[in-house]
């Protein structure tokens, strides 16, 4: 910082004068800063518009999806007995279902023994298989052997060993006043998904020790066995069986969940899910209206407040708004519905959209025609579906080389140039301050010298006058 004089010699307020001169040098900085603020505001608004345009484009992709208007829902007259789920695109249908028997897993329960009784040494082999013929037929998987330690393994330890073995069954211990029992159960339901427990007992006695846990033909171990069973039902009077209570593969796109035996037919149906389709369209309308409102507010001039929108007069924003409104009025040939207005989407004054729910609901009775309106594929871009148009439109404005992107980059370049201009003004003012201070300090020093010389001359003249007299 230059050393400044207070102007004592000359009586001139150097600091004040230099400050005012420097302020004049820095005057262009105010305009540049105001301009930079406007640039940043425009960049911010354009960023918001670009984000909103991207969201609209994503909704265009969703509307153009071949499954967008294939939403269906399942209905059941008694959901506690028969539930229904359906996949998108499943054809609407209806049927009558009666449930005679639910599928169950095989379960077993041993006779009660005193609590914490060691069951003796030996090996348990658990084999999965089929009891439907009345006797056990082993499945393709090899049996799983579980070693039991004498004097150590109670039913609690045995249950833990079974659960850890991954043998396709689960085990737990039931305790009551009579003692404790080992309960076992197949992991899966169905009469062909049972299990057998063979025991190699170290004591060799078929009714004592570990043999009491056997679940096997010809062994009177006292184990209570409830064999697995298939679900049995009728669909439109046709008998069906299923190893699971979930009937999945018999009806294309439809899964039935059987939960109770019925005493009367349960009516199930598949219908077009108009609510889901309406929600998709409403999301599109909401996104369009939000973008339209943003464009309107940022490009208008309010005569009452005399405040202009951030993008008022901006050709990119005005062009976007006009192009968007024009595109929404375009025609898509090829089906019963060719314009948005045909399905109840109207464009009101100011470019805002509204939905006539009655007309839309009626249009959704023909979801394929509505789908064509949004995803029609055509070599002529103007004849494509609205979903396809939205995707292309959004990319043209907010994509990597889109109009909004280019405009934003142009404004960022302007900000960079503005920053350089501000730096130049600041640097120029600093040089001017140094120059002014040097000049005024030199003037002040010169005045000081002249004042000293004047005092000396005055003193000499006074001395001469005394001598003469």
- Domain count: the total is 3
Number of strands: 20
N-to-C SSE series? Answer: HEEEEEEEHEEEEEEEEEHEEHEEHHHH
What's the alpha carbon Rg, rounded to whole Å? 45 Å
In whole angstroms, how far apart are the ends?
55 Å
* Main beta-sheet strand count, sense and barrel state: 5 strands, antiparallel
What is the averaged pLDDT score?
A: 88
Percent of residues in β-strands: 15-25%
Helix-strand layout with pairing:
Blueprint: H1 14-64, E1 72-76, E2 82-86, E3 93-101, E4 107-109, E5 122-130, E6 137-138, E7 144-148, H2 155-165, E8 169-176, E9 179-186, E10 194-201, E11 224-226, E12 231-235, E13 238-242, E14 246-251, E15 254-258, E16 266-272, H3 274-299, E17 301-302, E18 307-308, H4 315-328, E19 345-347, E20 353-355, H5 357-363, H6 367-375, H7 386-398, H8 403-468
Account of the 3D structure:
- It is a single chain.
- The chain has three domains: 34-68 and 275-406, no CATH class; 72-103 and 231-272, no CATH class; 107-226, no CATH class.
- The mean pLDDT is 88.
- It has helices spanning 14-64, 155-165, 274-299, 315-328, 357-363, 367-375, 386-398, 403-468; strands spanning 72-76, 82-86, 93-101, 107-109, 122-130, 137-138, 144-148, 169-176, 179-186, 194-201, 224-226, 231-235, 238-242, 246-251, 254-258, 266-272, 301-302, 307-308, 345-347, 353-355.
- 28% of the residues are buried.
- The chain is elongated.
- It has eight helices and 20 strands.
- The two termini are 55 Å apart.
- Helix content is 42%, strand content 22%.
- With 469 residues, the chain is of the alpha+beta class.
- The protein has a five-stranded antiparallel beta sheet with strand order 1-16-3-12-13, with no helix packed on it. It has a four-stranded antiparallel beta sheet with strand order 8-9-4-11, covered by helices on one side.
- Strand 17 (301-302) and strand 18 form a beta hairpin.
């Amino acid at each position: 910082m230059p050393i400044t004089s207070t102007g004592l010699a000359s009586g001139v307020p150097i600091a004040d004068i230099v400050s005012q001169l420097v302020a004049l040098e820095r005057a262009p900085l105010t305009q540049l800063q105001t301009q930079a603020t406007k640039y940043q505001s425009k960049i911010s608004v354009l960023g918001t518009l670009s984000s909103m345009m991207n969201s609209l484009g994503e909704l265009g992709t969703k509307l153009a999806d071949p499954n967008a208007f294939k939403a269906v829902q399942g209905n059941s007259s008694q959901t506690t007995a028969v539930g229904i789920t359906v996949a998108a695109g499943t054809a609407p249908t209806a049927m009558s279902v009666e449930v005679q028997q639910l599928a169950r897993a095989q379960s077993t329960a041993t006779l009660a023994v005193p609590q914490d009784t060691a069951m003796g040494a030996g090996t348990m082999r658990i084999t999965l298989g089929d009891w439907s013929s009345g006797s056990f037929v082993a499945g393709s998987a090899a049996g799983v052997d579980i070693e039991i330690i004498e004097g150590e393994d109670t039913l609690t330890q045995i249950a833990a060993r079974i659960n850890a073995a991954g043998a396709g069954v689960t085990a737990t211990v039931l305790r009551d006043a009579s003692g404790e029992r080992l309960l076992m159960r197949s992991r899966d339901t169905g009469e062909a998904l049972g299990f057998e427990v063979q025991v190699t007992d170290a004591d060799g006695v078929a009714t004592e020790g570990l043999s009491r846990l056997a679940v096997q033909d010809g062994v009177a171990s006292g184990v209570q066995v409830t064999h697995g069973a298939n679900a049995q039902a009728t669909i439109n009077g046709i008998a069906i069986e299923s190893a699971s209570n979930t009937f999945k593969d018999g009806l294309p796109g439809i899964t039935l969940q059987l939960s109770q035996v019925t005493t009367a037919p349960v009516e199930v149906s598949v219908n077009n899910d108009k609510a889901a389709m309406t929600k998709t369209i409403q999301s599109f309308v909401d996104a369009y209206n939000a973008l339209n409102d943003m464009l309107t507010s940022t490009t208008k001039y309010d005569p009452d407040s005399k405040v202009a929108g951030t993008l008022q007069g901006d050709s990119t924003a005005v062009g976007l708004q006009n192009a968007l409104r024009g595109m929404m009025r375009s025609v898509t040939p090829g089906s019963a519905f060719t314009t948005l207005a045909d399905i109840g989407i109207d464009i009101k004054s100011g470019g805002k959209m509204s939905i006539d729910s009655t007309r839309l609901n009626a249009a959704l009775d023909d979801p394929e025609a509505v789908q064509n309106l949004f995803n029609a594929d055509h070599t002529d871009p103007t004849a494509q579906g609205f979903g396809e148009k939205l995707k292309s439109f959004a990319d043209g404005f907010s994509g990597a080389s889109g109009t909004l992107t280019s405009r934003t980059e142009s404004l960022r370049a302007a900000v960079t140039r503005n920053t350089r201009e501000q730096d130049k003004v600041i640097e120029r003012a600093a040089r001017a301050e140094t120059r002014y201070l040097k000049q005024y300090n030199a003037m002040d020093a010169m005045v000081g010298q002249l004042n000293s010389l004047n005092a000396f001359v005055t003193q000499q003249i006074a001395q001469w006058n005394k001598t003469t007299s």
